[in-house]
Design goal:
With 286 residues, the protein is of the alpha/beta class. 28% of the residues lie in helices and 22% in strands. The protein has helices at 90-93, 99-109, 128-140, 155-161, 177-184, 188-201, 218-229, 264-274, and strands spanning 2-3, 12-13, 24-27, 30-33, 38-39, 41-46, 60-65, 95-96, 114-119, 144-149, 167-171, 203-210, 245-249, 281-284.
Length: 286
């Protein structure tokens, strides 16, 4: 039995088994990343797809995903590699690469206009060791590193990665503990702590997916945007108003097909509320 210290769950994992995320297991009395070097997806994407609107706009980035996730969002768009039954089989099927091989692929993609590597598609921080080892090499080569994350890792993980990460898009999926706990299987407190520190370390943009009947009230958006606007850097200078927020439209998928898509009008109205405090608010999927 060993205790995992990567995220808010702090799983106690019996020998030979895996934790909640499926990607970290106990082997010989210690927790190890079972998905180290496992690649399930690799694509050259526009940077705006991450989404990052104010970090090297117009560029592309080589995007890589592995498998596993420590949340249980019922609307997950990448459920085949995150937490559906199919994801449990990926450990045997995924292509394994070394940090050196992935860094070399990033260098080759630079010839096609790529600025570096984005760790995305599943939750990259449950396999943070591979992110660290690869990001060190790509940084040394003069490339950029991007994280697309749910932001529920412990700050010890963030501090390990901080020197090598240039930008993040972090999901701020809602702004009530109840929504995080009951719908997503997560922790709003953990996400807020992570965002507050990440914004002091690199360029950060946030994404909120608006789900009808869950997190679509004007009051919640006012509370969310007010919290973001109050963020400060390590010297106490306000930085929150300049943090971009992406307000995105929900479409029914995976286990959440009991409602229709978010109305475009609702997304636009909530974006306007966010603009009362934030300078850069973008709408997505509209």
């Amino acid at each position: 039995m060993a205790k995992c210290a990567v995220c808010f769950r702090h799983c106690e994992i019996p020998e030979g088994l895996a934790g909640f995320c499926g990607a970290r297991g106990c082997r010989e009395g210690r927790v190890v990343p079972l998905n180290y070097g496992c690649v399930t997806a690799l694509a050259l994407d526009p940077i705006e797809k991450k989404p990052l609107m104010r970090f090297h706009p117009g560029s592309s980035i080589l995007s890589v995903g592995s498998w596993g996730c420590n949340l249980r969002c019922p609307f997950c768009q990448n459920h085949e590699i995150s937490w559906s039954p199919e994801a449990l089989d990926l450990g045997e099927k995924a292509r394994r690469v070394t940090p050196e091989a992935l860094a070399e692929a990033a260098l080759q993609a630079a010839d096609r206009g790529s600025i570096g590597l984005a760790f995305t598609y599943n939750e990259p921080l449950i396999g943070w060791e591979f992110v660290r080892d690869t990001a060190k090499l790509t940084h040394k080569a003069g490339l950029k590193n991007v994280l697309v994350t749910n932001g529920t890792a412990e700050l010890t993980v963030l501090e390990e990665l901080g020197p090598y990460i240039d930008a993040m898009n972090i999901d701020l999926k809602g702004f009530t503990e109840e929504y995080y706990r009951k719908v997503l299987g997560g922790s709003l407190t953990a996400v807020k702590t992570f965002i507050a520190r990440a914004a002091q370390l690199c360029h950060v943009e946030l994404t909120t997916l608006i789900v009808p009947g869950e997190n679509d009230s004007p009051e919640e958006m006012r509370a969310l945007s007010a919290w973001v606007a109050a963020l400060r850097d390590s010297a106490g200078k306000p930085i929150g108003p300049d943090i971009p927020l992406h307000v995105s439209r929900f479409f029914p998928r995976f286990h959440m097909t009991d409602r229709g898509p978010t109305s475009v009008r609702t997304v636009y109205a909530l974006a306007e509320i966010a603009r009362e405090r934030l300078r850069f608010v973008y709408t997505g999927n509209c």
